[in-house]
Amino acid sequence: MTARRTLYQTTPIYYVNDVPHPGHAYTTIAADALARARRLSGHRVFFLTGTDEHGQNIERIAREKGKDTQAYCDEIAAVFKALWVRLDVEYDRFIRTTDEIHRRGVLELWRRMTAATAPDGQSAIYRGKYAGWYCPRCEAFKDEDELKEPGHLCPDHERPCEWTEEENYFFRLSAYSDWLKDEIESDRLLIEPAGRRNEVLSVIRQGLKDFSVSRARVKWGIPVPEEPAHVFYVWMDALSNYVTALGFADDAPEFREFWQKSDERLHFVGKEIIRFHCLYWPAMLRAADVATPTRVFAHGWLTKGGKKLSKTTGNVIDPDRLIDRYGADAFRYFFLREGSFGQDWDFTDEAFVSRYNSDLANDFGNLVSRALTMVARFNEGKVPPRPGSLDEGDVGLEVRFQSEKVDWDATGSSLVAAVFARYESLDYAGALSLLWSWVGQLNQRIVVQAPWEMAKDPGQRPELGQFLYRLLEAIRLIAVMAWPVMPKAGERVLAMMGLPPGPPAPDDLKWGRLVPGATLPPVEALFPRIEVTGVEPRAPREKKVSDPTERPAAAAPVPGTASAPSPAGPPAETTQAQPPASALITIDDFAKMELRVALVKSAEKIPGSKKLLKLQVDLGDETRQIVSGIADAYTPESLVGRKVVLVANLKPAKLMGVESFGMVLAASLDGKAVLCGFDADVPPGTKVK
Ligand code: MSP
Prior knowledge:
Helix content is 36%, strand content 19%. It is built from 21 helices and 28 strands. Strands 3-2-1-12-13-7 form a 6-stranded parallel beta sheet, with helices on both faces. Strands 19, 20, 21, 22, 25 and 28 form a 6-stranded antiparallel beta sheet that branches. It starts with 5 loop residues before the first strand and ends with a strand. It binds 5'-O-[(L-methionyl)-sulphamoyl]adenosine. 5'-O-[(L-methionyl)-sulphamoyl]adenosine binds at residues 12-15, 23-24, 26-27, 52, 238-239, 241, 269-270, 272-273, 301-302, 308-310.
């Protein structure tokens, strides 16, 4: 375990111009998952979110709705808070820019900025005249060359910008260019992903302009003391929240601890507001002689039909509808697993249902219920004794899960360390896919080990107990490691294993926390399968495994859609739905396929079948059983020692009663198979792409 760190992390504060949508939830869930992962690793974390309530735009919307502006803000802020409760977001503080603590903090920041001298020797704040194109929705001036013509439209909102001339207070950002460049290039301000860092550096290279920090024509805001008819510019007001919330105005202990002396000050932001966070904000703090942020992660946009999800573009998705249908855990899992956090990605209901059914209902949900059902049946519903030592039978599970020495995933660290390293770098999809590769391996282990066969032989009881203990322990650890993303499911799994209720603690990341002899409560389905007519999953969903303890997760109808369950898919050995000849796949679709070089170690005919052979193939780090329909073209002997191409991540299927964990690729010539091969020697396990 690394040393205990003190960490501060924030989301943007969201405008109350409308109720939240999944774009807002995306950032907030990501920040919450990191905060949970960090607390689970033993660090001290302060996690801040809130609402941005001032400005012309909000004043106008409240007026259009015929509401008092503050009452309107109260209403929408409450909707944000309620959504965070539903989504299990556990922030430490919710700051509103209409809070008194915020107003006092902004005034203190202003006092310090007005007293400051910029690096060029001039005052950091000055009075000046501004004339330019102003977008009231962005609450920002736009460069003429940014506008969309005709109509001087804002490039983000596609609405007309207003020509605005004002006498305002200005902040001398231009004088901070060299300092900012140095901060960013040295990574003292780490901007991620790297592409965004380059973008910010290029903005600095093009020359920074001073920006105005007050508005003469806006009333809904914090008045500037020297000029009460002016209010602070919304971005000056909004950015300050990150320190005002901690009691900056009073130099409160929380401010000193979590901001000034913190080991990391991290802002999660969407990519569109990176300049404010990486240029305006650090420079303002520098002028006020306050510590500056150490890390800004600008994530990609959630799109629908290729367009940014936003009220303005009109393609909103109701987050409550998704939570009602699938639950908060599935919501959190989907958004953090489906896209890469730094990139834009497109939301579809089909992808949601597909991931839910494949990853949560089939893979994880089934694994948990199979393991617990086996304990109920074969060990009287009690946690088996803890195995004394590592031996061959443990398939390296303990070693992989806890050892710091095993070369896991080429990082040289244990699974726990590898997963948490991914959380730390905000690679949520990477953390989850690593965990789910273990979910898959454990499901396969059950099939290979066939504990129901062991249960028939009283002599094998000790081995059966050891196997079940290790299986349960591995699942428990996966549930704990997935808890930052799926807190409810994680805690339910722990409860079903007879462990005390409540969130897991750092010690729960160690192997061997199950209590032998503990009686397990009844098994409940974690993620009931969803059947939706018209929304078909991406891959064949029906798993055919001979495990008598496996029960397919019960189907749950989806409200508002036809709920008739779709007929079970055809047997794997006959046909599978083919895409239309014209259907094209993207490189991402192709990347879902795991093709590997496999060395045939043994081959034999399957009794009663003319076409099928049972192969044992070596994949470098494991041996797999494959059933392949190539017996009419190849004798078993001719295959031994041959290298073939294997689809390694195909769901297990049963052909003529024999389990197959993958598929060998071959061409078909006059109905006979011709195997794919290589024209140089390639080691088993090598990826084929
Ligand atoms: N109030 C400002 C932020 C001030 S922070 C000092 C603001 N508010 S906002 O309501 O427009 O929220 C913007 C943020 O919400 C984005 O930066 C991002 O974190 C999140 N998202 C809103 N729509 C989003 C998507 N479609 N996709 C991903 N995130 C999105 O800007």
